[in-house]
Amino acid sequence: MKKYIYFLLLLLTQVYAQEKNYSLTPEIIKSVNPSKSAIDKISEIDSTIFQKQKDIFNKNIPDILKYLRNIINNDNEQFVKEYAYLRLISTYSVAPHLAKDDTLIEENCIKVLHPNNILFSLDPDIIDFYLFCEMSSLPYVKELKLSHDKSKNIKIDTLKIKNLSDSLSLKIYEEFYNNNQDRVVKAIALIHILRSIKNGEIKNKYYNILKSDYSDIKEVGVALKKYNPNSIVKVGNKVPYFRGKMLGTESYISPNELRGKYYLIYFWATWCNVCIKKMNELEDIYDKYQDKNFTIVTISLDQNDNVIERFRKKEHQIPWLNIRLENGIQDTIWKAFGNGANDGVPQKYLIDPNGMVVETDASWISGIGETIERYLHK
Question: Nearest-5° angle of CA 320, CA 322, CA 328?
């Protein structure tokens, strides 16, 4: 089973890498003005990696990593080193399990690549992995890792980790936004900033910038809906009224019946792979807190009850409260939460005992369970 999972990850990594286009753009060449030898070397890097990836059933990823590390360690042109590092962390970002053998990747990454580097325009998604490198290089995190490697028992200050993560995330994303000249990189950084900021006034400022200056970028559309300050469902507002028939019963559920307890509303569907991946976590949360003033309400977009029942028998029991939207995306419940034909799943909202929204997808930064625990332990 482990070999199968490894092979699947490897396959996905190679497909992802082949879909990316890492060719130097005219903007990069104009900005950096690299030497002809640097351009030739980078062209050779692209060609070599392409050949190694040509057969996606050939387990060549370790060879590619070794090849890139060799260039990093031995080439004397800085721009070539930077490019090789970009390709290296691009691979690690989609296959982080492979990074465990590269003990210096975190520190070396942030020494060689900086947020103002235009090479990030070739793969803006790796901003998150860059943040991981920055976080891993912090003294406290390094101390934890060293203790773990030596099998020492050490108490982890989760609050300290969270505060470090929150402050560093905002700092790094703002550096990318303020210093990188590529518009897509700036837009991705702004989206991350909106995800990180709690202050409503500052969040509105960045939202307006994203909307006015970057709405033409494809990644921005979903973010504008998700972080809209005028959204019907946002932190501090009352949960929209809904009344749905519970699956397999003749009973109905609404916020009135749920008042007095915390509950997670989770929009999903059996055809949504991302939704299903979260089911194990939801089951763990439910098992842990179902007797502690907490429950879950899953609301499905599936076309009929039978599909969900088959899923419950074969995949996950989902033993909490379940509603199916009988009219799909035209259902009043779907619309009550500000959704239309172009909106999708999953979506999640945490509601407090007073019926107020305390977390939405826009405010949710840490894991589902970790966030819920913070409220239940208050």
Answer: 160
